[in-house]
Backbone:
């Protein structure tokens, strides 16, 4: 059965997420998180994607992005996930699929839902019981937005 076409909209924001195959962890140590963030920065620049929020959980990730052109969204995600998978498999001497399937996404109206979605994504570690406040979780955009750490990765949304 062929997979359905993605709904891609010009000038829209996307909440993108995916998890490890069979719900397995995709980040096993701090270096894995840092590698993913390095690749995220690299490919967001290459494909001209704005990044408004993110959270890397042990077995899944959330990204809130706005591509300059909607058709680059899939290329951006393909580059990011394939390069990370290659790096992960080489490091841990494994083979095969790292991800459960192709990434999922939700289109959102920037003016109506963007800020709420950012808060939702950044609160993920609290809901999962990993920390008691988002400020204590090092692998999300919360510390960047609030404290200014890692400014080059995060873009500020224009919600006017």
Residues:
């Amino acid at each position: 059965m062929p997979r359905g076409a993605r709904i891609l909209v010009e000038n829209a924001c996307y909440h993108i997420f995916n998890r490890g195959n069979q719900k397995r962890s995709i980040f096993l140590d701090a270096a894995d998180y840092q590698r993913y963030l390095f690749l995220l920065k690299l490919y967001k620049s290459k494909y001209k994607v704005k990044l408004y929020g993110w959270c890397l959980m042990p077995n899944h990730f959330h990204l809130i992005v706005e591509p300059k052109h909607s058709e680059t969204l899939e290329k951006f995600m393909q580059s990011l996930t394939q390069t990370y998978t290659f790096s992960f498999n080489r490091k841990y001497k494994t083979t095969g699929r790292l991800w459960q399937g192709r990434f999922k996404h939700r289109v959102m109206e920037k003016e109506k839902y963007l800020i709420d979605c950012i808060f939702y994504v950044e609160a993920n570690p609290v809901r999962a019981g990993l920390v008691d406040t988002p400020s204590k979780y090092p692998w999300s955009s919360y510390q960047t937005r609030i404290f200014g750490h890692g400014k080059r990765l995060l873009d500020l949304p224009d919600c006017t």
Q: What stands out?
A: The CA atoms of residues 143 and 149 lie 6 Å apart.
